[in-house]
Automatic annotation (TrEMBL):
Family annotation (PROSITE patterns): ANK_REP_REGION, ANK_REPEAT
Pfam families in the cross-refs: Ank_2
The entry's keywords: ANK repeat, Repeat, Ubl conjugation pathway
Classification via InterPro entries: Ankyrin-SOCS_box_domain, Ankyrin_rpt, Ankyrin_rpt-contain_sf
Gene Ontology BP terms: positive regulation of protein catabolic process; protein ubiquitination
Positions annotated as ANK repeat: 42-74, 75-107, 108-140
Protein's recorded name: Ankyrin repeat and SOCS box containing 5
Cited SUPFAM superfamilies: Ankyrin repeat
Length: 202
């Protein structure tokens, strides 16, 4: 089955409402760790700031001064969420080595791995998985796989596939990763999923 055939078939499927980050209001984005500029949250700690800006020395200094590595904002965003969203692999490694919760979730269930896949940071995704990040959840939490597929981050998708994800995972509110990739016309991701054995019958 060719890539073009897969895209054509997707166009005949019932339309589903995709909950992409770009469609969400600012308040919801903030809980997902998307708004990371200064002033996004009044309760962001210096640790969040250092992680979001990739300042390794500041991060090490703050941790040595006793800052909690899993310090939370009101929306339960951790410094690790920030580091991964910013593609700051060095900061993410420091936080993980200090004991950061690799599967920490925001109030909307977003994990650091989701943020890494949203940003397109394959390096952060690989690091998180090495530290035990859960790639897929049974409940309908934001899916790193679907996020990577919808945004065209094929390198992140390749990392997830190499760690044995279920490429046929079908979420009620999103569909399968292949469906999402087809709707978003992400050809490279479609190819990755087809080569990984994604079913066209889902």
């Amino acid at each position: 089955m060719t890539t073009n055939t897969a895209v054509q078939r997707s166009q005949n499927l019932p339309k589903r409402r995709l909950e992409s980050i770009g469609e969400c209001p600012a308040k919801r984005k903030s809980s997902w760790g998307i708004l990371t500029s200064q002033g996004s949250w009044a309760d962001r700690s210096p640790l969040h700031e250092a992680a979001s800006q990739g300042r390794l020395l500041s991060l090490k200094t703050l941790l040595s001064q006793g800052y909690n590595v899993d310090t939370l904002t009101i929306d339960q965003v951790t410094p690790l969420h920030e580091a991964c969203l910013g593609d700051h692999v060095g900061c993410a490694r420091i936080l993980l080595e200090a004991g950061a919760n690799v599967n920490a979730t925001t109030i909307d269930g977003v994990t650091p791995l989701f943020n890494a896949c949203s940003r397109g940071s394959a390096a952060c995704a690989e690091l998180l998985l090495e530290y035990g990040a859960k790639a897929q959840w049974e409940s309908c939490l934001p899916s790193p796989t679907h996020e990577a597929a919808s945004r065209g981050h094929s390198e992140c998708l390749e990392v997830l596939i190499s760690w044995g994800i279920d490429v046929d995972q079908d979420l009620p509110h999103l569909g399968t990763p292949l469906y999402v990739a087809c709707v978003s016309q992400q050809i490279h991701c479609i190819r990755k999923l087809l080569y990984a054995g994604m079913s066209l019958l889902k």
